[in-house]
Amino acid sequence: MAEHEHVRVAVVGSGFGGLGAAVRLRREGITDFVVLERADSVGGTWRDNSYPGCACDVPSHLYSFSFAPNPDWPRTFSGQRHIRAYLEHVTDTFRLRPHLRFNSEVKKMTWDAERLRWAVETSSGSLTADVVVSATGPLSDPKVPDIPGLDTFPGEVFHSARWDHDLDLRGKRVAMVGTGASAIQIVPSIQPEVGRLTLFQRTPPWVMPRVDRPVSGFERALHRNLPFTTQLRRGLLWGIRELQVQAFTKHPGELGFVEQLAKRNMARAIKDPALRAKLTPDYRIGCKRILLSNDYYPALAQPNVDVVASGLSEVRGSVLVAADGTETEADVVVFGTGFHVTDMPIAERVVGADGRTLAETWKGGMEALRGASAAGFPNWMTIIGPNTGLGNSSMILMIESQLNYLADYLRQLDVLGGRVALDARPDAVTAWNHRVQERMKRTVWKTGGCTSWYLDASGRNTTIWPGTTAEFRRATRRVDLAEYEVLRPAVTRTSGKAAETEAAV
């Protein structure tokens, strides 16, 4: 990284959000930008999560950029390897590599109120930027619970997002902690080879069949030669999911029928009534993310698998102790315990106009105007920010909506001209989040009777968008300058010499 480098835009992260932002910048005619990536390759969560069985639970033709359709997806639900390859392809197709700065972890970002720019310190050097786009994503920093005695465990311990591929699991006693989207893919993938597999289940998930199949050669040829068929397929997948939204956001009672389908799915594979009782949730389906799998339940029914219907509470050497007192010996512990979603570590590294970090500002809960701008952090935007997550559709749709907002944000700065910054008004942020939280009250995520990773420490849902993706796209189509303070350098007189200070218009 060049000494004293200055760019118009610094993008942090090279997953879907960061690469999408880079493509949009180039399409807007902006080439003065860098993408800062802490790892040595692109891919984000699809680079980091390489555990056995890792795949997407959203159909491939919907889980891809609208501006970069892929006619050659091998399966209707593609695996990690193919999704990562797709992101590498996007990087090359849109000529993003000259903008990439690998092994450049952001250590600190500080707003310079006098110069109206961000000072960015990374592990490979420093730079300044007029605008920062934070695209680190909510699924980037693994969360491992603080288990008493874990440091005494003599075997291997790792998180699903940091899989140890050098470790041979054959014949070993493996403990899987957690029952989320990663665990239900890992369990059936490793069950045939391990000696004993113990699943520590704090809360059972609702699991529906995964309607996955290979995409035929005819389909791929059709999409390649007639691109509109890819768009048609994507549109159909999108429309079906849009129609489902009301059941999640307005009429959770309608989900009872889906629960019956999920119970039948379980009953087909789990014949033991005692095990079936352990695996049956006591909350409304959809309150936690609905998981898709055809082989999770069959794996749990195998003789070398034990389900402990209690969370891991203590470790005594090689003995794992559950909250209900169950003791299990293990050689390997794998944590599938999620990520720092409502307390993203990047927030501790962003210092705003008043000298406070974003983490301090968000101490009472994450809030951002239209999921993008935080008050007191001028010219700083986040992709997949507060209340932009989805419970039933593709996050790429939300990312592209935020990219529209980013593009108009930069256009507004151009129209205003000169050295200028936009800072979200606190009252605008409050009003937006009040509307979001009012809508949240009727949703299954609030009324479904569960505790999920969607909720922050105070029980507030700061993660999910309580509406359709079409609604969010309309809400982020344009930047409303009335929701922002316009900041410019002001000229004052000091000892006969001109000095610049920040002024709000």
Features:
oxidoreductase activity; 505 residues; NAD(P)/FAD-dependent oxidoreductase; FAD/NAD(P)-binding domain; Flavin_mOase-like; alpha/beta; 2 domains; 8-stranded mixed beta sheet; globular; EC 1.14.13.-
Structure report:
By secondary structure, the chain is α/β, with parallel strands linked by helices. 29% of the residues lie in helices and 20% in strands. The chain has helices at 16-27, 45-48, 80-93, 183-190, 217-225, 227-249, 256-269, 273-279, 296-300, 358-361, 395-416, 426-440, 444-447, 469-475, and strands spanning 5-12, 33-36, 100-101, 106-112, 117-122, 125-134, 156-159, 173-177, 196-200, 207-208, 291-292, 305-308, 312-316, 319-322, 327-329, 332-335, 350-351, 380-382, 421-424, 484-494, 497-504. The strands form 5 sheets. Strands 1, 2, 3, 4, 5, 6, 17 and 18 form an 8-stranded mixed beta sheet that branches. A 5-stranded parallel beta sheet has the order 7-16-8-9-12, with no helix packed on it. A 3-stranded antiparallel beta sheet has the order 13-14-15, with no helix packed on it. The longest helix is centred in the middle third of the chain and has 23 residues, at 227-249. The protein is globular. The two termini are 35 Å apart. The model is unreliable at 492-499 (pLDDT under 50).
